[in-house]
Specification:
- The complex is a heterodimer of chains A (116) and B (112).
- Chain A is an all-beta fold.
- Helix content of chain A is 0%, strand content 57%.
- The radius of gyration of chain A is 13 Å and the shape is globular.
- Chain B is mainly β and 112 residues long.
- Chain B has no helices and twelve strands.
- In chain B, strands 2, 5, 6, 10, 11 and 12 form a six-stranded mixed sheet that branches. A four-stranded antiparallel sheet of chain B has the order 3-9-8-7, with no helix packed on it.
- In chain B, strand 7 and strand 8 form a beta hairpin.
- Classes of the chains: A mainly beta (116), B mainly beta (112).
- Chains A and B meet through strand 5, strand 9 and strand 10 of A and strand 5, strand 6 and strand 11 of B.
Chain lengths: 116, 112
Amino acid sequence: GAVVSQHPSRVICKSGTSVKIECRSLDFQATTMFWYRQFPKKSLMLMATSNEGSKATYEQGVEKDKFLINHASLTLSTLTVTSAHPEDSSFYICSAPVQGGMDEQYFGPGTRLTVT
Amino acid sequence: GNSVTQMEGPVTLSEEAFLTINCTYTATGYPSLFWYVQYPGEGLQLLLKATKADDKGSNKGFEATYRKETTSFHLEKGSVQVSDSAVYFCALAGDSSYKLIFGSGTRLLVRP
């Protein structure tokens, strides 16, 4: 089946630095990808919709200047957490819809970000 | 707005026990409903889905029926195995959007 990868799987950074997380669709093209944030023992919260060739659409309450999203190609979306703070520590997950079935999605394995 | 509510865990069962994880939803229109599973150290995987009322989704012995009258999509399995230990998420996609709205997740622990 279709696979979505994320890199890195874990990252530790210092406060004030920026971190880039990559999401790739490995054997299919994805004009749309989604970025989620998962807090410990909580559900996934949709952060933004990444659109290839155009600006991302952010959910209410998500700072677009802090969480920069770039969908550079049909197989790659990146999320950059700028000027990271400890409260940004979380599990970030991306997903891409199944072609022809937009309501079904493939999920990446997630990236654990720890900001010290 | 759309929302999903599922029972809090953890749910601890012995092997071969019957499993029910409750899920109810609030949505306008006719959403599609899903159960996703997250095994330890892995990403979410689609377990089953139903796209219209009275549909039954099934996979790997798990079943869930789309009940519009009770706005529910409860997950059931007749005989759980240790390998079913995971976190289960109920989710919906609105009929005018493919954004997934997730419930809070229910951790299932099956003991030998």
